[in-house]
C-alpha cells in the first residue's frame, strides 16, 4: 500500500503539464483581485454622489429659459450638472369591460414615439373586445412602424382594492423591462385618466430632472386607516375565481409588522426604472416579503410601492410626495374620487398636474382638454416629432421626424411651477 501510494505521488509531481495552467490561473486571479481592490478605492475616494446631482434649473440657451431656480439647485445639492439624453416613459394603461375605446383615446393623447406603452384589458372584458383592441393597435401604421405599443396577451382578473392590481402592475413592469432597456420612468394610468399636458411638455420638463426621483404620494399609515386597513385580513377572489366578486373579509385581525413600517398613499405613481427593477428583482428580498404581506391587505395598491420604497435606505430619499394627478374627492370623504366635468376644468388647470382622473366615458370636458390644453385636432397630441403637412386638414403626425426634439407649450410652464413648489419642501415630506 505504501509503495503504491508513493509511486502514485511520484507520478503526479513528475508530471509537469499542470505547471503552466496553474500559474496562468494564478496570474488571472491576482489580476482580478487587484482590479477589484483598486476599483473600490478609486470609487470611494471620489466621494458619495447625491441622488439629485444632475438636476439643472439654471437658465441656458437649450433649456428655453424654463428652469431658473438656483435656490432649488442648492437645496437638492446639485453640484454637478451634465447634459443627458432626453428621457423616455413607460406607460401602463389598464381597463376593464367596455373600456377599450377609452383606453385607445388615452393612449393617443399620451403617445410619443420615444415612449413605451402596454395595454391591459382585464379578464372581465369579453374576448371579442380584447381582440378588437389588439387588432386596432396592430393595424395602426405609426404603432407598427415604431413598435412601442403592446397589448398584454395574458389578461388578469383585477380587483381594484385587492392585490391582483399589484400583481398585474408588476407583470406589466416585468414585460416592459424585458422588451425595452431604454426608458427612465414608469407611469400607470387607467382608462378613466387623461393628460393635461402634451408629451412634449412632459418630456421637456423631465429632461431637466434627475433620473433618480420618484413621484409617489405617501404618508405613514395612522389613524382610521391603521384600524380599517392594516388590522383586517381580506381575501381577493380574483386570485382563484374567473369572475369578479367583492373582497372577502375574515374574522381574524392581524398585528402590525415589526420588521418594516407601513406607508400608504395614492395608487397612481411615476416610478424610476431603478426602483421598479428593484421591485422585480428584489435582491434583498424586501419587495417579496412586503408583497406577501399585502396579499391579504385592504387597498394594497395604495400601500405596496409606498411601503417598499420607504423601508429601503437606497430609495427612501428619492420620493417626492405627489402623484402628479388632479383628483377631486367626495364629501363627506368616503375615499371615492368624483367624476370630473366642465365645472372642474379651471381647477384642473390651476392644479398644474400633468394628469387628472376620473372622467366618465366621452365626457365633453375631454374635448375641451383636447382643444385648449393638448391642441389635439387629430389622433395624437401634436409634438415636434410630427413633421407632416397640415394643409387641407391633413394629420401632421402621419409623418414622423426627430423624436429627441420637443416643442413645449404652456403645459411645460405649469408643470415647472408645480415642481418648484414640490421641491421647496421636498426634504420635509420624505419618508419618516
TrEMBL record:
Provide this UniProt record's keywords sorted from A to Z.
Glycoprotein, Glycosyltransferase, Membrane, Transferase, Transmembrane, Transmembrane helix
Its transmembrane ranges are: 20-41
This protein's GO cellular component annotations are: membrane
An annotated Gene Ontology molecular function? glucuronosyltransferase activity
Domain of life of the native organism: Eukaryota
InterPro entries this protein is in? GLCAT14A/B/C, Glyco_trans_14
Query: Where is it mainly found?
Result: membrane
**Lipid bilayer topology:** Single-pass type II membrane protein
Subcellular localization, as worded in the UniProt entry = Membrane
- Name recorded for this polypeptide: Beta-glucuronosyltransferase GlcAT14A-like
Organism of provenance: Senna tora
Amino acid at each position: 500500500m505504501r509503495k503504491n501510494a508513493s509511486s502514485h505521488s511520484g507520478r503526479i509531481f513528475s508530471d509537469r503539464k499542470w505547471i503552466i495552467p496553474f500559474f496562468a490561473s494564478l496570474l488571472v486571479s491576482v489580476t482580478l483581485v487587484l482590479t477589484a481592490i483598486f476599483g473600490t478605492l478609486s470609487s470611494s475616494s471620489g466621494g458619495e454622489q447625491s441622488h439629485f446631482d444632475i438636476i439643472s434649473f439654471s437658465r441656458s440657451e437649450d433649456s428655453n429659459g424654463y428652469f431658473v431656480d438656483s435656490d432649488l439647485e442648492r437645496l437638492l445639492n446639485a453640484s454637478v450638472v451634465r447634459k443627458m439624453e432626453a428621457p423616455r416613459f413607460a406607460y401602463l394603461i389598464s381597463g376593464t369591460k367596455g373600456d377599450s375605446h377609452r383606453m385607445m383615446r388615452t393612449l393617443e393623447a399620451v403617445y410619443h414615439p420615444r415612449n413605451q406603452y402596454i395595454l391591459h384589458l382585464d379578464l372581465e372584458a369579453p374576448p371579442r373586445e380584447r381582440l378588437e383592441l389588439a387588432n386596432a393597435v396592430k393595424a395602426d401604421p405609426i404603432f407598427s412602424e415604431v413598435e412601442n405599443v403592446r397589448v398584454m396577451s395574458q389578461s388578469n382578473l383585477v380587483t381594484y382594492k385587492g392585490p391582483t392590481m399589484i400583481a398585474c402592475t408588476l407583470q406589466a413592469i416585468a414585460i416592459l423591462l424585458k422588451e425595452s432597456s431604454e426608458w427612465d420612468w414608469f407611469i400607470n394610468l387607467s382608462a378613466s385618466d387623461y393628460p393635461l399636458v402634451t408629451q412634449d411638455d412632459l418630456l421637456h420638463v423631465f429632461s431637466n430632472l434627475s433620473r433618480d426621483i420618484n413621484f409617489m404620494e405617501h404618508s405613514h399609515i395612522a389613524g382610521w386607516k391603521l384600524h380599517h386597513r392594516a388590522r383586517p385580513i381580506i381575501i381577493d377572489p380574483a386570485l382563484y375565481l374567473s369572475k369578479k366578486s367583492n373582497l372577502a373579509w375574515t374574522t381574524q385581525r392581524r398585528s402590525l409588522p415589526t420588521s418594516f413600517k407601513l406607508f400608504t398613499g395614492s395608487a397612481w405613481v411615476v416610478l424610476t426604472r431603478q426602483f421598479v427593477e428593484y421591485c422585480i428583482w428584489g435582491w434583498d428580498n424586501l419587495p417579496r416579503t412586503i408583497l406577501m404581506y399585502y396579499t391579504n391587505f385592504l387597498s394594497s395598491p395604495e400601500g405596496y410601492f409606498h411601503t417598499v420604497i420607504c423601508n429601503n435606505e437606497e430609495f427612501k430619499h428619492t420620493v417626492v410626495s405627489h402623484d402628479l394627478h388632479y383628483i377631486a374627492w367626495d364629501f363627506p370623504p368616503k375615499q371615492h374620487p368624483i367624476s370630473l366635468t366642465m365645472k372642474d376644468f379651471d381647477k384642473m388647470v390651476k392644479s398644474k398636474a400633468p394628469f387628472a382622473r376620473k372622467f366618465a366615458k366621452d365626457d365633453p370636458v375631454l374635448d375641451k382638454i383636447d382643444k385648449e390644453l393638448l391642441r389635439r385636432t387629430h389622433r395624437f397630441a401634436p409634438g415636434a416629432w410630427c413633421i407632416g403637412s397640415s394643409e387641407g386638414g391633413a394629420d401632421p403626425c402621419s409623418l414622423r421626424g426627430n423624436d429627441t426634439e420637443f416643442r413645449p407649450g404652456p403645459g411645460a410652464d405649469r408643470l415647472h411651477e408645480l415642481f418648484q413648489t414640490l421641491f421647496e419642501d421636498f426634504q420635509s415630506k420624505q419618508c419618516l
